[in-house]
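Researcher: Quick sanity check before group meeting.
Model: Go ahead. Protein one:
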Amino acid sequence: MDLHPDDAARLGLAQGDAAQVVSRRGAVEAPVRLDPGLRPGLAFLTLHFPDEVATNLLTIDSYDPKSGTAEFKATAVRVERADRPLRA
């Protein structure tokens, strides 16, 4: 999960720490990566490697009726420190 360094510091997270990412639809754990180019207040999780982090558990199953594109691009989340380290 990419976070701006200021956001990570406010959450008590550092590069490589395990973060718990929670939405109304689900929760996942992901390693933190600091990205100073990311706008503060935003977080980024890729959806291209579901075997590493099942990002789509956080999103809804809706599709755009015209394009057929899945609505995977945005969701509100809460980020917090994971209770345990990530598995190796």
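Researcher: Fine. The other one?
Model: Protein two, sequence then structure:
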Amino acid sequence: MTARDEVLARIRTALGRSPAGGAPAGDQVPRRYRSNAGLDTGALIGLLTERLRDYGTAVRRCPPSGVLAAVGEALAERGARRVVVPPGFELPGRYVPGVTLLADDRLSPGALDAADGVVTTAALAIAETGTIVLDGGPGQGRRALTLVPDYHLCLLQAGQIAGIVPEALDRLSPGRPYTWISGPSATSDIELDRVQGVHGPRTLEVILIGP
């Protein structure tokens, strides 16, 4: 037996495969991890809000009828006047006083950087980790859209909140390109000085829409 044959034989043994091939049946793989947080909507909202604020993310609550007003208030407090919106983004009233909404028709990185921010929706959020997940679908846009502008305002429905990661994965399609966001972009140098806005938006704000 050559060294190569010995290595491959050990790999087959570790994987539970015979030299003839074949893999262990899927039902033989133990799955004893939690698949659901078992939390109601109110508890999910509370946990997600706590996690987001721990990361330095501002969180606003509003009913479905108050989305336009909440967006207007958030942008006004930020001083944002020129804001990019992705394809498929729909806002009740479609007009925010004092704000120009720029449709992202493959805007250049320079144009994105010159904008005051971006407003998107999301695919879902994970309460336990405080993570916002984007899948590039309608209302969310391409990855550059939420990485280049310095301010990201994200609209999230209360029904889009999953409790834990396995629960979220059950809702997501494996064929989509995902961006997972846990708070504003930040990093620390060798002296552990925290700097925000290095790899994405310096400021992340979330509007939670629901009861």
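Researcher: One line on it for the slide.
Model: The chain is about 25% helix and 25% strand.
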